[in-house]
Amino acid sequence: MSPIFPVLAIPAALGAIIMAWLFQRRRLSPALGAAAGGAAGVVGALIFMLPLNFCTFEAERDTIDRVFGAALIGIGMALTLWLVQWGAGWWQARRAPPVDVGFQFQQPGVFRGRLLPLVFLAPTLIILALFLYYPSLDTFRLSTLLVRLGARRTAFVCVDNFTSLVADPGYYSSLLTTIGISLAIVVLGLALALLIALAAYQPVAGARIYRTLLIWPYAISPAVAGVIFLLLFNPAGGIINHLLNGIGIPNIPWLNNPTFAPWAVIIASVWKSMGFNILFYIAGLQNVPKDLQESAAIDGANAVQRFRHIVFPLLSPITFFLIITNMTYAFFETFGTIDYLTRGGPLESTTTLMYRIYQVGIQNNDLGKAAAQSIVLFIMVIGLTILQFRSTGRRVTYGA
Predict the structure, then answer these.
(1) How far apart are the C-alpha atoms of 315 and 319, rounded to whole Å?
(2) Is the domain of 302 the same as that of 203?
């Protein structure tokens, strides 16, 4: 029997049951919800299965391929069912009787038609389509192919580029390296930036000059930061070892030892992002009400208590924003620093997921596997961002 029928029938049944229940909770017709949910389930399954030609459910495929295909169907179903749920809420809101507020308020600055705003948006949409959306879709296409850099012919390999990662111990090693380096960059970068911002915020002479000098490193590219710290951490004649020798400490193999090499990358990356973090923390400190700190000081709170209970909670929106941006920087933008400092070594101790994509796609000429790994990395960062919004985002304090 063809695998197409059960692949479509199961999502259709699940979608019908889920949407019938959701429509009933909204006091809408369960039959209408079942029909919409069944159609959405089929569409959700076809989003990924149609381009793949249902290859994950072929008889010769392994269990991991079928599990991967089921996961793709689940993702597609979640998207289409959410759209149906949103559409039902919008339609229900449109049917609700208007509330009489006693006066008519016309919002200024609203376009009367839809053509003019589309004309204004057209240049931006065209640029996004050519340089963002099309390359993203092409990456999905490449991830299902056996593609060699420079070769003209390609071969369809279904989801083998994804499922092969499950049995690749080197990929898990790169994953752990990425998590460790990224976590250190975020924690150390934000902690040091907050301490320096607190010192730079003090009213002293020449504050604007040294604040500018503190922010200046952010304008340097990661590659340039890698070159600078290559000179600093060079095991043979680096400045750091020269200073350590002056106080009686022997040379440290910063770039040749798997224990020290990740720390060289972390220090360089923290220095590179320090100016960005300091800039936002200084801006946040300027918005902390001074009367609250003065009231706490009158009540007997010392400087540490005032910082813990007043300043830091009011800086939580800035901290939350910086966690997201620094995490994105640690995952994606440390490539240039790693390439110039360690080139992923020694013994792959600094081979992050981003640098591994470069090794697989450019050095090993396997664009298909590199595309698959880039998609996995992208989904991972999106998942971590959503997790941050779901957990840490709820603890953010806005306002005094």
Answers:
(1) 6
(2) yes
* ∠ CA 207-210-212, rounded to 5°: 105
Give the pLDDT confidence of 205-229 residue by residue, as tens digits: 777 777 777 778 888 888 888 889 9
pLDDT at 109: 64
The pLDDT score that the predictor gives to residue 310 is 87
**Residue 114, in any domain of the structure:** no
Element (H, E) at 100: none
Task: Report d(CA 252, CA 332) in Å as an integer.
Answer: 28
Q: Which residues of the chain have pLDDT under 70?
A: 1-3, 96-109, 392-400
Q: What is the pLDDT of residue 399?
A: 57
- 3-state SS class at 148: strand
Q: How far, in Å, CA of 49 to CA of 76, rounded?
A: 9
Kindly state whether residues 167 and 90 are assigned to the same domain. Answer: no
Q: Average per-residue pLDDT in the chain?
A: 87
Token pair of 169, please? 């111990």
CB of 355 within 8 A of CB of 178? no
Residue 28, φ and ψ in degrees, nearest 5: -110, 175
DSSP secondary structure string for all residues of 33-65 = HHHHHHHHHHHHHHHHHHHHTTGGGSTT--HHH
Tokens for 208, please give them: 């604007």
